[in-house]
Write a sequence for this structure.
């Protein structure tokens, strides 16, 4: 059951993901798709809408389009009224399993959940499930996230609620766990004794893409940090769980966020907004010149921060996080920089010239792992340079068509909550950034830097690391 069935998320991602699941034989023959939305287009209108979407996103193989359309129904109505839920109930026998996917604006989550509860659609049988799937944003700060959780928990149990962070559907994000815990040489080095610092970068070239109005009320911090960046942070920093159950995994991830040291919003955080510039060959306007953005907007499109994790493994190791729009290159990556080797043997080599050992996990658009280490430059004198060993997924494995939602939807159906977030993690994430939100709200003197679109981000973010005698990995090489 998809609420918001005529929207963009459904067409671009959910339906193509369902088709890929079907192609891999992972949907049962008695599968049914019920779309719910406000437009009054009837079953046939919705089927036509789906057919066009399927042809546009995911190819036009006729037989599997027909397979879906034969199993598709549509219910129209306003989400706040009881009617659509009655119509849904009439189409959904009590003994059927169901996923209610809320592909709607977040303002609708509470009302739909309440109505589903009232219509008794969330009641599970002994052998049947009823699950509610929602996607970020979960609230806009700690109190609103806690209020949303409270309301959802009035109508469903925690284990019926699947909160999606689409970053966890990315293959290379899932690979973080494998890299760390399936390789004997990694874990012994993965701690404060051997690691100097960690950098997490989510750089985008896109601007606000017509979302000026909603983005302006959100900003880069809320949009990216407590969710996507903190997911990456917790996977990199968590303790090995005792087994791979959802409970064990999620508990370890939550502990990381609970251990983040209180940060100082003035010293440890940089906020910035893009000015005009060039991304690739295209001239792009400043953020304040984007449609629906106030010309005096002080919303940030970039944020960088330094975090500490106060636990036995990580105390003293800084984690530097940054994300921004309209940067010179799209890249999501995590770099773990190891401590320098003892230098005595190379005392005639200036320290700066010894390349640091670092391990970079490329998440997107490249997918792979890269290890940088020092090598001797051939010749009679000892000179050292950095060299790279690089593994690219695409060189080794044939990529399967994936929107990133296949695994997530499949896991929802199977009831495996490992890749979903419990209320505790959501609230812990907001808890970390709440002091920054409060400081920005209350202290207008905290500066907002301006950076050129198409560049590497603001110089203030470079200064954040320079204070610690460190440097960001270059976004543009
Ligand atoms: C979304 C944000 O959650 O993630 C967007 O709201 C952002 O602003 C997007 O562009 C990034 O996702 P991806 O998969 O392109 O890295």
């Amino acid at each position: 059951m998809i609420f918001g069935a005529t929207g963009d998320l459904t067409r671009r991602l959910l339906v193509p993901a369902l088709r890929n699941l079907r192609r891999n034989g992972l949907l049962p023959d008695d599968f049914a798709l019920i779309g719910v939305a406000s437009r009054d287009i009837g079953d046939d209108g919705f089927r036509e809408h789906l057919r066009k979407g399927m042809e546009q996103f995911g190819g036009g193989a006729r037989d599997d389009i027909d397979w879906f359309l034969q199993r598709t129904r549509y219910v129209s109505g306003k989400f706040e009224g009881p009617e659509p839920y009655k119509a849904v109930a009439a189409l959904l026998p009590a003994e059927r399993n169901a996923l209610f996917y809320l592909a709607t604006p977040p303002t609708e989550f509470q009302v739909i959940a309440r109505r589903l509860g009232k219509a008794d659609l969330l009641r599970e049988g002994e052998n049947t499930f009823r699950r509610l799937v929602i996607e970020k944003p979960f609230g806009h700060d700690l109190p609103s996230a806690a209020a949303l959780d409270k309301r959802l928990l009035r109508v469903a149990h925690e284990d019926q609620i699947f909160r999606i962070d689409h970053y966890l559907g990315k293959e290379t994000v899932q690979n973080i766990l494998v890299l760390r815990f399936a390789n004997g040489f990694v874990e012994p080095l993965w701690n404060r004794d051997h690691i100097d610092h960690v950098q997490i970068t989510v750089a985008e070239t896109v601007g606000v893409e017509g979302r000026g109005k909603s983005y302006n009320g959100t900003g880069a911090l809320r949009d990216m940090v407590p969710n996507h960046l903190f997911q990456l942070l917790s996977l990199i920093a968590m303790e090995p769980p005792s087994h791979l159950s959802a409970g064990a995994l999620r508990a370890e991830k939550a502990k990381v966020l609970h251990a983040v040291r209180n940060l100082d919003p003035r010293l440890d955080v940089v906020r910035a907004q893009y000015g005009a510039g060039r991304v690739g060959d295209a001239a792009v306007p400043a953020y304040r010149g984007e449609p629906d953005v106030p010309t005096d907007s002080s919303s940030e499109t970039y944020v960088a921060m330094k975090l500490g994790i106060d636990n036995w493994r990580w105390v003293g190791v800084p984690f530097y996080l940054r994300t921004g729009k309209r940067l010179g290159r799209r890249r999501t990556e995590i770099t773990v920089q190891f401590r320098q080797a003892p230098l005595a043997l190379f005392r005639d080599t200036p320290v700066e010239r010894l390349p640091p050992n670092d391990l970079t996990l490329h998440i997107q658009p490249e997918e792979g792992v890269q290890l940088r280490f020092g090598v001797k430059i051939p010749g009679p004198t000892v000179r050292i340079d950095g060299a790279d060993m690089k593994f690219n997924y695409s060189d080794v494995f044939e990529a399967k068509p994936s929107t990133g939602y296949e695994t997530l939807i499949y896991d929802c159906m199977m009831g495996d909550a490992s890749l979903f977030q419990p209320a505790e993690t959501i609230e812990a994430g907001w808890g970390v950034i709440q002091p920054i939100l409060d400081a920005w709200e209350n202290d207008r003197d905290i500066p907002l830097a301006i950076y050129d679109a198409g560049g590497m981000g603001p110089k203030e973010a470079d200064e954040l690391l320079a204070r610690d005698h460190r440097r960001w990995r270059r976004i543009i090489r």
The longest helix spans residues 423-442. The first strand starts at residue 2 and ends at 3.
